[in-house]
Amino acid sequence: MAEKIKKGFFKVLPWSVVIFLVIGLVATFTMPTPQNPGVLPALAAQPTMSSAVTVDNNADGTVDRLVITFSENVDITDGNAGDGFPAITLAASSGTATIDNADYGALNVPTLTLNITVSATGNTAITIDPTYATAPAGLIADTATSTEMANLATVVGADGAKPAFISALTGDANSDGTVDRLVLTFSESSDVTDGNAGDGFPAITLAASSGTATIDNADYAAAATTTLTLNITTSVTANTALTVTPTYTTAPAGQIDDVAPANNEMANTASVAGTDGAAPAFISALTGDNNSDGTVDRLVMTFSEPVTVTDGGTDDDITLVASSGTATVTAGVYGAVGTTTLTYTISVSATGNTAITIDPTYATAGAGSISDTVNEMANGETVVGADGAAPAFISALTGDNNSDGTVDRLVLTFSESSDVTDGNAGDGFPAITLVASSGTATIDNANYAGTASAILNLNITVSATSNTAITVTPTYTVAAAGQIDDTSPANNEMADAETVAVTPLQPPLLKQTSVI
Questions:
Q1: Residues 6 or more apart in contact with residue 279 via CB below 8 angstroms
Q2: Which of 19, 267, 366, 405 has most Cβ atoms within 10 angstroms of its Cβ?
Q3: Can you name the residues that pair with 286 across neighbouring β-strands?
Q4: Residues with Cβ within 8 Å of residue 97, at least 6 apart in sequence
């Protein structure tokens, strides 16, 4: 009976109503959800970290950023700008990395940039792995469904920081007092590509603290190196205080990038302030005759830059080698600050010889020191000494050449071989004036020019005749006509007012009126 009723019921209903009833019955027996009583819920996907790339934001060679990229746009909640971001911990490939305090909150973003501090400074090769924890303050969830990132979600960090210059140190490779090297240190091991050994290295330009600096032609290519040594030429010679600042340009020939797999090229305009790495050097060591007695008693050493001289009191910092005989330092206080010269008072065994030269050699093992306050002079630093001592009169000997009882000669002996220039044979020799012990003495007209001689014979006339006891004192004047100087290469002219104590009459020395 029921079956008949059911059949009859559906027979009298229109098909549209039947279909509606069937759909309703199916919906009635589907498991409900709160949002939609007839649909099963789908599980929302959790966002993940797809990359974590390091950055050196200020190009100083130390990583200071970590850019985390997510699998989808996320909302970031940072509960406290003063606690870093506790939801993420960082594991660095070397040293430690911590998140700086900041407000990292953001909505609907694909990336999160963390400001970080790493303990391994000057190292752009460092990588950092971030790990997310759901428990601490802070939250990362996808924007679409507010589904939070999984606890302990992580990703292997990648190197995105470019190599940088961390120092540019000058050098003086041959210790001649002029900068000729620039040693660049990178923040990580890098590959240097040099396309042409004949064009210097165009990717790097140099700015010197004074004058100019240019890169010499050479092949500077290198693999996996942390330093690049450039041979350079500077316009300011004899100056080891010079500093040179490099700047990198990505456009020209040549390239610097970190090693595989990163291959990040150094940033355009990357630079670093140059520093002084060149030790001071001797650029000259000049002898002197302080009292003009014809014997060297001074050594003036000139440095390539201002130095501090610390006197240890034992005078064992610099040893002296004389061109003849010996030279020793006279005890004294030689300390000085910010000086470009050091003057030693010395004693030499070869007296009456202003042609002597002295080579100084520095030893770092001595009790004192010479430095530019940063770099001490190199051990064994030396320079070839030069003759700075002017010739001097060491004797003035009267003579009676014709044995008539009247002085008519003055024989001057020099402290070294000298050249005599006489501009006019008809004016005596104005560069020398004579003072007789009685009466007057004048130089006769003659040509007194001569080369490379230690003796000058002057023909003279004295007013006190028949008096061989007379003595004659010569005095040299640089302003007057005529000149006396030592032979090349020194060409030191005799000092103004140079004189000598006279010597009594001797038997005739020469029977001619010629000079020298």
A1: 172, 175, 240, 371, 372, 375, 376, 377, 378, 381
A2: 366
A3: 300, 386
A4: 63, 66, 90, 91, 116, 117, 118, 119, 126, 128
C-alpha torsion sign, points 306, 311, 312, 318: positive
**486, β-bridge pairs:** 418
Q: Is 143 in contact with 37 (CB distance < 8 Å)?
A: no
What are 373's two structure tokens?
């306050």
Which of 171, 195, 169 lies closest to 256 in space, CA to CA? Answer: 195
Q: Residues 6 or more apart from 453 whose CB is under 8 A from it?
A: 414, 417, 418, 420, 516
Return d(Cα 109, Cα 46) in angstroms, integer: 15
Query: What pLDDT score was predicted for residue 239?
Result: 97
Q: Measure Cα distances from 29 to 17, 37, 38, 42, 346 in Å.
A: 19, 10, 9, 19, 118
Angle (CA) 278-358-289 rounded to 5° is 115
Residue 263 tokens read as: 């291959």
Running DSSP on this structure, what letter comes out for residue 240?
T
Please report the pLDDT score of residue 136 as a whole number.
Answer: 86
Residue 507: its pLDDT value, please? 56
Residue 303 has, within 13 A of its CA and on its CB side, a CA count of 27
Give buried/exposed letters for 103-118 (b at 16+ CB in 10 A, else e): ebebeeeeebbbebeb
Q: 153 is written with which tokens?
A: 């979600």
Length of the chain: 516
List average pLDDT for each run of 10 residues in the chain, which is 516 residues long. Answer: 41 40 37 45 83 97 98 95 96 98 97 98 97 94 97 98 98 97 98 94 98 98 98 97 98 93 95 98 98 97 98 94 97 97 98 97 97 97 98 97 96 98 95 97 98 98 95 97 94 97 63 39
**219-223 long-range contacts, CB within 8 A, separation 24+:** 219/194, 220/192, 220/194, 220/254, 221/192, 221/193, 221/194, 222/191, 222/192, 223/191, 223/192, 223/259
Using an 8 Å Cβ cutoff, are 494 and 392 in contact?
yes
152 membership: H or E segment, kind and range: none
Instruction: Tell me which residue of 394, 325, 316 sits closest to 357, measured CA to CA.
Output: 325
Parallel/antiparallel/unpaired status of strands 213-215 and 298-310: unpaired
User: SS3 for 419?
Assistant: strand
DSSP state string for 261-330: TT-PBPPTT-B---B--PPP-EEEEEEE-TT-SSS--EEEEEEEEEEEEE--SS--SEEEEESSS-EEEP
Cα 234 from chain centre: 12
Residue type for position 106: A
Tell me the two tokens of residue 63.
């990583």
Q: Is this prediction's pTM over 0.85?
A: no
Cα(314)–Cα(317) distance, rounded to whole angstroms?
Answer: 8
β-strands 336-348, 432-436: how paired? Answer: unpaired
Q: What is the rounded end-to-end Cα distance, in angstroms, of the chain? A: 166
